[in-house]
Each structure stands twice: as C-alpha cells, then as structure tokens.
Design goal:
The chain has 94 residues and is of the alpha+beta class. 36% of the residues lie in helices and 14% in strands. The protein has a domain of 63 residues: Multidrug-efflux Transporter Regulator, Chain: A, Domain 2.
Length: 94
C-alpha cells in the first residue's frame, strides 16, 4: 500500500472544489500569500473554456497572473474570482 504524504498541521486543508490535475499532480501551493495557485488547464476547466482562451485573457490583461521564474505562469483564485465578478458586471450592463 502506498502511503500518502501528510501536510503539516499548520497547513490549511485543500478545498474539495479544487480541480485535480489530469496527470495526478497535486495543485501547486505557492508562496504568494500562501494561496493555492492554479495552472492554465485548471483555470480553463473552471471557466469551462479552452486553454487558448485563458492565454488570450492573460495576454490582453483581463486576467491577472503570477509569473514564477521565466516561463511558469500561475493564477490566484482571488484573481479568478475578480475576473468573474468584473465579467458579471459587464454582462449585466449590456
């Protein structure tokens, strides 16, 4: 039987709403305000859109992101919630 790695008691538990990575990789728990960071695939699943759409939203500045190193891009759950709130306001006006 394979033993699972246990998080220290001080670490907050992972929320059940967090989408699992298709390759079985655990979500990245970054150092940015100790929040859970999402990759582009996880954001695309939450928005029910393609990864290409997430990349376009990031490049146009509509969706805030965190760059780790030169190539790694992650998204904070808070920024995703802000984007959804802003798009709700825009669609309510139209």
């Amino acid at each position: 039987m394979i033993e699972q790695e246990r998080l220290p008691l001080s670490a907050p538990p992972l929320e059940s709403a967090v989408l699992a990575h298709p390759l079985g990789i655990a979500p990245f728990r970054g150092a940015v305000e100790s929040q859970l960071l999402l990759d582009q695939l996880q954001v695309a699943k939450r928005l029910q859109c393609s990864v290409h759409t997430v990349v376009r939203l990031r490049r146009t500045g509509q969706l805030a992101f965190v760059r780790i190193g030169n190539r790694l891009v992650r998204f904070r759950e808070e920024d995703l919630a802000d984007y959804l709130a802003a798009s709700r306001k825009l669609s309510a006006v139209a």
